[in-house]
Amino acid sequence: MYLTGVLMIFILNLNAQFSIGAKAGLASSNMNINGIIGDYLPGTSNFHGFTGGIFVEIPIGKGFYFNPEINYTQKGSVFNPQTTIGIGNTDIPIGLRITNQVNYFEAPMMVKYKLGAGRINIYGEGGLNLAYAKSATLKEQAIVLFDFNIAQQNIDLNNQFINRFDAGAAIGVGGEYIFSTGNKLGIGLRNNQSFRDYVDFDAAADV
Description:
Elements: E1 2-14, E2 19-31, H1 35-40, E3 44-61, E4 64-79, E5 82-87, E6 90-117, E7 120-144, E8 146-154, E9 165-178, E10 184-194, H2 201-206
Antiparallel strand pairs: 1-2, 1-10, 2-3, 3-4, 4-6, 5-6, 6-7, 7-8, 7-9, 9-10
């Protein structure tokens, strides 16, 4: 399962009925590994990738807005088992870094509530996030003082142990500035928690 934090900057173009906007930002994600394989694998660290997309903001009354989106988001995790060897009085780090990157098309369906004060709005949001994995890669690097690329290969997402479709919950906060033209520039922070496992590790271990 993925836990993803998203920092995004967006701009809105307004008309009387709804707003259309574009956004781009940073997605920081990690993977929780449970079960048999999780007991033996080293811990993972965050993977930092790009996210961007378009969205529509539709007023539904009394400060509430329906906010559907279509995004491209890079998610993943980093395995980094390391140790050291002593040479003289110096400890030399050696190890392996394995980076798993999965590229998703996402369709968040958010409900947003705004509070305004002059040209400034602040908001909270929550909703459902649906996603489909388009492609994925695995990159290996050796670490001996410096990082050395060993190999990179594509992951077969049609593998029986991989779930290409994902669903999760998303919550977020943010703010926006309203220009005299009526357009808006904003920044937001969102947290996504997936409900489905990307890989069925226990089934893979059984095989």
